[in-house]
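Troubleshooting entry. The earlier prediction with magnesium ion gave an output that would not parse, so I re-checked the input for stray whitespace and re-submitted. Clean input:
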Amino acid sequence: MSGLRVGTGFDVHAFGPGDFIMLGGVRVPHSHGVVAHSDGDVALHALCDALLGAAGLGDIGQHFKDTDSRWRHADSAGFVTAVLAMVREAGLAVVNADLTVIAQVPKVGPYRDAMRARIAQLVAVDPRRVNIKATTTEGLGFLGRAEGIAAQAVVLLEKV
Ligand code: MG
Protein backbone atom coordinates (compact mmCIF):
# COMPACT_ATOMS: atom_id res chain seq x y z
CA MET A 1 0.00 0.00 0.00
CA SER A 2 1.28 3.45 -0.91
CA GLY A 3 2.56 5.69 1.85
CA LEU A 4 0.81 8.68 0.31
CA ARG A 5 -2.53 10.13 1.44
CA VAL A 6 -4.45 12.97 -0.22
CA GLY A 7 -7.18 15.09 1.38
CA THR A 8 -9.38 18.02 0.40
CA GLY A 9 -11.07 20.77 2.37
CA PHE A 10 -13.59 23.51 1.65
CA ASP A 11 -14.93 26.31 3.83
CA VAL A 12 -17.12 29.40 3.55
CA HIS A 13 -17.84 32.27 5.91
CA ALA A 14 -20.24 35.18 5.41
CA PHE A 15 -19.00 38.74 5.70
CA GLY A 16 -20.37 40.73 8.65
CA PRO A 17 -19.45 43.65 10.85
CA GLY A 18 -15.75 44.44 11.20
CA ASP A 19 -12.78 45.93 9.41
CA PHE A 20 -10.47 42.95 8.82
CA ILE A 21 -10.53 39.23 8.16
CA MET A 22 -8.05 36.52 9.09
CA LEU A 23 -6.96 34.65 5.97
CA GLY A 24 -4.26 32.00 5.93
CA GLY A 25 -3.22 33.14 9.40
CA VAL A 26 -2.69 36.71 8.17
CA ARG A 27 -4.71 39.78 9.16
CA VAL A 28 -6.16 41.32 5.99
CA PRO A 29 -7.83 44.75 6.21
CA HIS A 30 -11.31 44.70 4.66
CA SER A 31 -14.57 46.67 4.65
CA HIS A 32 -16.13 43.78 6.62
CA GLY A 33 -15.23 41.05 9.08
CA VAL A 34 -16.57 37.50 8.93
CA VAL A 35 -19.42 35.91 10.87
CA ALA A 36 -17.90 32.97 12.72
CA HIS A 37 -17.59 31.28 16.10
CA SER A 38 -13.79 31.22 15.80
CA ASP A 39 -11.78 33.86 13.92
CA GLY A 40 -13.42 32.53 10.71
CA ASP A 41 -10.22 31.94 8.74
CA VAL A 42 -11.59 30.03 5.72
CA ALA A 43 -8.13 29.16 4.39
CA LEU A 44 -6.98 27.60 7.66
CA HIS A 45 -10.32 25.82 8.13
CA ALA A 46 -10.08 24.31 4.64
CA LEU A 47 -6.47 23.38 5.39
CA CYS A 48 -7.49 21.62 8.62
CA ASP A 49 -10.14 19.63 6.76
CA ALA A 50 -7.64 18.64 4.06
CA LEU A 51 -5.14 17.48 6.69
CA LEU A 52 -7.81 15.55 8.59
CA GLY A 53 -9.19 14.09 5.38
CA ALA A 54 -5.80 12.85 4.21
CA ALA A 55 -5.19 11.25 7.61
CA GLY A 56 -8.67 9.67 7.73
CA LEU A 57 -9.49 11.62 10.90
CA GLY A 58 -12.87 13.11 10.06
CA ASP A 59 -13.47 16.86 9.87
CA ILE A 60 -12.82 20.08 11.76
CA GLY A 61 -16.37 20.24 13.15
CA GLN A 62 -15.90 16.90 14.92
CA HIS A 63 -12.71 18.04 16.64
CA PHE A 64 -13.55 21.70 17.33
CA LYS A 65 -17.31 22.02 17.79
CA ASP A 66 -18.67 25.48 16.97
CA THR A 67 -20.89 25.27 20.07
CA ASP A 68 -17.85 24.87 22.36
CA SER A 69 -17.06 28.13 24.20
CA ARG A 70 -13.34 27.18 24.18
CA TRP A 71 -13.23 27.96 20.44
CA ARG A 72 -15.12 31.26 20.62
CA HIS A 73 -13.03 33.86 18.75
CA ALA A 74 -10.27 31.19 18.62
CA ASP A 75 -7.15 31.79 16.57
CA SER A 76 -7.49 29.20 13.79
CA ALA A 77 -3.72 28.77 13.76
CA GLY A 78 -4.30 26.82 16.98
CA PHE A 79 -6.64 24.45 15.08
CA VAL A 80 -3.95 23.80 12.47
CA THR A 81 -1.33 23.17 15.16
CA ALA A 82 -3.65 20.71 16.93
CA VAL A 83 -4.55 18.96 13.68
CA LEU A 84 -0.88 18.69 12.69
CA ALA A 85 -0.21 16.98 16.04
CA MET A 86 -2.94 14.41 15.18
CA VAL A 87 -1.41 13.92 11.73
CA ARG A 88 2.01 13.30 13.28
CA GLU A 89 0.49 10.95 15.84
CA ALA A 90 -0.84 8.95 12.87
CA GLY A 91 2.72 8.65 11.54
CA LEU A 92 2.20 11.10 8.69
CA ALA A 93 3.90 14.31 7.51
CA VAL A 94 2.93 17.00 5.01
CA VAL A 95 4.38 16.69 1.51
CA ASN A 96 2.67 19.80 0.12
CA ALA A 97 -0.45 21.92 0.41
CA ASP A 98 -2.27 23.82 -2.34
CA LEU A 99 -4.93 26.34 -1.38
CA THR A 100 -7.38 28.40 -3.44
CA VAL A 101 -9.11 31.44 -1.98
CA ILE A 102 -12.37 32.19 -3.79
CA ALA A 103 -13.56 35.76 -3.27
CA GLN A 104 -14.50 38.90 -5.15
CA VAL A 105 -12.98 40.97 -2.34
CA PRO A 106 -10.58 41.53 -0.65
CA LYS A 107 -7.61 41.25 -3.00
CA VAL A 108 -5.38 38.37 -1.86
CA GLY A 109 -2.28 39.20 -3.92
CA PRO A 110 -0.64 41.61 -1.47
CA TYR A 111 -0.92 39.00 1.33
CA ARG A 112 -0.06 35.87 -0.64
CA ASP A 113 3.58 35.61 0.41
CA ALA A 114 2.77 36.22 4.07
CA MET A 115 0.03 33.54 3.96
CA ARG A 116 2.40 31.09 2.32
CA ALA A 117 5.08 31.69 4.95
CA ARG A 118 2.61 31.45 7.84
CA ILE A 119 0.99 28.22 6.59
CA ALA A 120 4.39 26.66 5.90
CA GLN A 121 5.39 27.50 9.47
CA LEU A 122 2.16 26.01 10.86
CA VAL A 123 2.51 22.70 9.00
CA ALA A 124 6.32 22.58 9.42
CA VAL A 125 7.37 22.55 5.77
CA ASP A 126 9.47 24.74 3.49
CA PRO A 127 7.34 27.57 1.98
CA ARG A 128 8.03 26.12 -1.47
CA ARG A 129 5.74 23.23 -0.48
CA VAL A 130 2.81 25.59 0.10
CA ASN A 131 0.94 27.26 -2.75
CA ILE A 132 -1.71 29.96 -2.47
CA LYS A 133 -4.00 30.68 -5.39
CA ALA A 134 -6.81 33.21 -5.59
CA THR A 135 -9.75 33.53 -7.93
CA THR A 136 -12.99 35.45 -8.16
CA THR A 137 -16.27 34.02 -9.42
CA GLU A 138 -16.50 36.75 -12.08
CA GLY A 139 -19.20 38.48 -10.06
CA LEU A 140 -21.45 35.40 -9.96
CA GLY A 141 -23.24 34.02 -6.92
CA PHE A 142 -22.87 34.86 -3.23
CA LEU A 143 -19.09 35.13 -3.52
CA GLY A 144 -19.39 37.37 -6.56
CA ARG A 145 -21.81 39.62 -4.68
CA ALA A 146 -19.15 39.90 -1.95
CA GLU A 147 -21.44 38.33 0.66
CA GLY A 148 -18.64 36.11 1.92
CA ILE A 149 -15.40 34.31 1.22
CA ALA A 150 -14.51 30.68 0.50
CA ALA A 151 -11.37 28.57 0.35
CA GLN A 152 -10.40 25.13 -0.92
CA ALA A 153 -7.36 23.13 0.14
CA VAL A 154 -5.65 19.99 -1.08
CA VAL A 155 -2.97 18.34 1.05
CA LEU A 156 -0.69 15.40 0.36
CA LEU A 157 0.66 13.46 3.34
CA GLU A 158 3.33 10.77 3.42
CA LYS A 159 4.07 8.00 5.92
CA VAL A 160 7.19 8.79 7.92
MG1 MG B 1 -15.06 27.67 8.98
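This one parsed fine. The two ends are 14 Å apart (CA to CA).
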